[in-house]
Design brief:
Length: 248
């Protein structure tokens, strides 16, 4: 049987906090920390209203080369590497796939996705396509993909090459076990070593956003309320006393 490595999963409290923060704030906070772009470009949300975070299980595809890949994988299904990334799935994991932006191959279909759902996977981020859209829609798996195709995973230009190795997904380097934050804005990769700092930086920003949003809706000056001007800090603090933050 083919052996593929597992991942080290981050502490759950980091994952939960990043899910609350969301993709946009995670991205902007990382940018202020020096990571200019951690947005996985190309895959878009196909599950409106879904917001997930979780550790990345990675799958890498390469351009198909016939001397390295043959139809023998269907004689022995265990040679199908795209199956093996799913074997590692635990509750809350996110499968992240470098499918090279290819629009001709469906990385997973109905049966593989059903297995992923049954193992408790949180969602998939795929720089490429899936297949069997009518059935996957019923599964209600949060998905960030480029699109859909009737073709199976190796029918055209791609072959699965590696599981749980560093990949380039949508222009972003994703390490196995990185925390993916994905919602309607897109998918963002948060390095585990920076997760706590991202949470801290984003939380201080979030504390005054509700107040500023209220003031802006009232037509108050943008210059004073976004970002919150030091002169408005006392006003905010008085409002916060009457509207304490409700922690989950």
């Amino acid at each position: 049987m083919t052996h593929t490595p597992g991942i080290t999963r981050p502490p759950q409290h980091l994952v939960d906090a990043l899910r609350e923060i969301g993709a946009a704030t995670a991205s902007s906070t990382l940018a202020h920390m020096g990571l200019r772009n951690c947005h996985i470009q190309g895959p878009t949300a196909w599950s409106p209203g879904k917001a997930i975070a979780g550790p990345a299980l990675t799958l890498q595809f390469m351009p198909k080369r016939e001397d390295l890949y043959g139809e023998g994988e269907y004689a022995d299904p265990e040679k199908q590497l795209h199956r093996h990334v799913l074997y590692h799935v635990e509750k809350g994991d996110i499968v992240v796939v470098d499918a090279r932006g290819d629009m001709t191959a469906g990385v997973f279909g109905d049966m593989m996705s059903t297995y992923f759902k049954g193992r408790g996977g949180a969602g998939m981020v795929i720089d490429g396509c899936l297949r069997d859209y009518p059935n996957l829609k019923k599964l209600d798996i949060p998905l960030w993909v480029r699109g859909w195709t009737p073709n199976f995973h190796t029918q055209t230009n791609l072959m699965p090459f590696a599981v749980n190795t560093p990949i380039a997904c949508g222009g972003v380097t994703v390490m196995p076990g990185d925390i993916i934050v994905a919602d309607d804005d897109g998918a963002v990769c948060v390095p585990v070593a920076l997760a706590a700092a991202v949470i801290e930086g984003a939380s201080s920003h979030h504390e005054w956003e509700d107040f500023s949003r209220m003031k802006l809706m009232q037509g108050e000056p943008l210059q004073r309320y976004y970002p919150l001007h030091p002169d408005a800090r006392g006003e905010y603090e008085e409002w916060r006393k009457l509207n304490p933050i409700k922690h989950q």
